[in-house]
Structure formats: C-alpha cells, structure tokens
Fold this sequence. Notes:
The structure is a single chain. By secondary structure, the chain is of the alpha+beta class. It is built from 14 helices and ten strands. β2 (52-56) and β3 (62-66) form a beta hairpin. α1 (2-9) crosses α7 (213-232). The longest helix has 20 residues, at 213-232. It is globular, with a radius of gyration of 22 Å. Mean pLDDT is 90; it is low at 257-271.
Amino acid sequence: MLGLDALLTEDYVSCGIPWELFPVAQPLLGTYADGPSLAWRPGKNAQVPAGWNVLEMKDGSELVSPNCFNCHSAEFNGELILGLGRHDADFTSDLFALMQLVPPLPAFTDAGKAFNKFLQRFAVVGPASIMLTAGTNPAIEFAFILLSHRDPVTLEWLDEPIQDLPEDMMIPADPPPWWHSRKKATQFANGMSRGGDHRGTMILASSLCTDTTAEAAVILDYFIDVVAYLESIEPPQYPYPVDTELAAAGGGVPVPLRGLPRQLQRRRENDSYPNMLIPLELIGTDPVFAAYGAGEFNYLEEWFESSFFGAVTQLGVTEPFVGYVAPPLDSVWASAPYFHNASVPTLDLVLDSGARPQYWKRVDFDSTHYDWDALGWPYEVLDHGQDQAGPLEQRNLIYDTTKPGHSNGGHPFGDALTSEERAAVLEYLKTI
C-alpha cells in the first residue's frame, strides 16, 4: 500500500538522530522514542520503533527520524494497532532538556547536520509544549509554535517568533483514530479544516524541519497516497462475545439530546455521517481548544490561509461559529480515553456526567488491563489534584480536571438514562 509505505519510509520529517547515536538518545526521549517495532519493515527499520524511520541521506549517512505513528499507533489488548491514537505517551518532560545531554555533532555528514537542526527545533518546541498529564498530546500546541516561527510565504524558519505565545498555554489533545478519516469532513475536534483536501494541515503537522515550499511540495505530492491509506483503514472489531439481545435494546434507547438539531437526533438511522458542528454553549465541554483558535490567537487562520498550506486546505476556524464536532462511533470502545482532551477514562462516564471524577489517574498503562464493562481504562479516583500531590507522588499521572484545558464537564446527554439503559447502550456501542 503506497500510503502506508510513504508513512514508514519517506523523510517528511527530515531531521532526526544519526543511526549510530540513536541507541544513546532513545532512552532520553522516553515514550517519544519507545514502543514496539514492526518486524515486517525492511532493513534497519525493523530495528526501530514503529514511530521512527531510518533514512539514507544523500551522502550515504543514516538518520532516524520521527514519523506520524509516534502519535497515531497504540497498543490495545497487547496488540499494536496502526492508526489508533496513542493513549500512553508521556509528554510531561522537556524533550529538549533531555536531548541537551547529547552534544551537537560536527557537521561532517548530512545526518550530523540534520541532528543539529533537530536539536535547534526542539530547543523551541520542547519547553513550550510540555503537557501536565501523561496520556495527553501536545499536537495542537506544536501547531501554534511551529506557525509562530515560520514565514508563511517561504516557510523559512525564524528564530524570533512572529507571534508571542502565552507562557501558560495549555491545550491537551487526544489523537483521534485514523479510521474516522473516511467519514469525517474535518480532521480536528473544533471543526476546522472542514471538507476538501486535508493534505495542507496533514503536512503542516509534520513540518518540524520543512523549511522551503519546494520541500513541502514534494511531500504534498505523495501525501495523496497517505490520504488514500487513511481512508482505507478498517476499524477493529470488538474481540469478545456481545450480548446481542442487550445490544439490540441499546440500539433502540432514545438517548435524550435536548436542544440538538433534529438531524443529529436521527444520526443512527442515517448512513451518512452528519459532521455537525455543535456550539460551545450547547455541548459544554472544555472550551480552551476551540477558544484559542477563535480568540486572540486567530492569527493561526490568517497565517495558514496566506501560506503554502492554505493554497491546498482552507482552515475555517470560526465559521459558521465556534464549537466542536462529535467523532464517528466506529469502534469507539477502542479509543479511550474520551473527549478531545482525554479527560474521561471510560465510555460509561461519557454517558453519566455526574459520575466523572474531578481527580483521577489510570491504574497503569498496560494495554491488556482494559475495563470491558465500562469500556475504557481502569482508573483510580483521587481526593486531590496535582497541586496537592505528596512529595513522593507522581504528579504527571494525575488527571486534574480543574486545570485549564482539562475540564471533563459538558456532554450531559446520557444523564437521564437509567443504569439498565446505560448498560444496554454500552453493549450496543460494542457492535458499531
């Protein structure tokens, strides 16, 4: 498959770590450079995690560079699933601070030059994209940071930002599964990049080292195949027996959707996915992601529309209004945690907003330890947040919903269900 081959072999991230240095640097990068390898990849690629590519440079030197599967592959029930959003990565450390333990290299080889660029870029994006909680992803913050350091016309890297970002910016994200691609008109929870050609935002997400429009044009060309691959991914099937009678009952439960458009209420009977944008005040989930792009940092849209990427994809951050788009429910049971900020550990809690804990942490990050009844990751309810954590407690394992961007409120549409109805709906969701 051409798109999968491109993701696992091409240099759309053209800086990284020399092959000889990768074993030394890998432990310093933690979960950013760990994970299982794919034995069927050819050559040295079979020896590195699935989220990294081994590239041969023009002078014959070899470079190991990150790829999209760093965030878009995850283990579930002990199996690596390509295209599943990663739920166990820990971005709570400053990657650049760790990489400073590895000195810059003499620029004698292309791989050495690419490594020095890698260090330079992480000096900028590393400190500014530290997450508070393990399992949340800095992808949205990466986009803001990268845009603030690039000329929109030439894509030249600028050491001084064209837009200062707030020191307290915090936009935790939960990478969506790629099997949504065939149904979604937008790549993002806030509804931006609706319709048309999504390649502009896709290659922007991997533009850490893409410094010219000529480079971007080459990547844009073969990302036609990447889009085709994403749209071909089949969602996994629920691996255990389903109570068909209970599931049938759950499929008929009229989940109260008071205030939502009638078209959305009929979604289950309609084969086409509506891709409806729901206003913030109606959905009620954490507003930070949507609000950043629509507020004082709406320069994102202006920059994008005037850039190389804007000639391919229209961003549309604020039109027709600010809100969020619900994801498709295909294999939703496999995509815990839930909401765009990963604030809800189980589907059972999605359907019962009053039961969501203010402070919680996962019991562990073992993908075989899954709650097949509540449909999500086993969690422990805490009586304190990160600020009250003890000196020996790992603060980064605590999901503190009082922190900016981390609220688990809103989406109360399942609250009126009885416990029996909720169990039936959960059983039904196993069949989608």
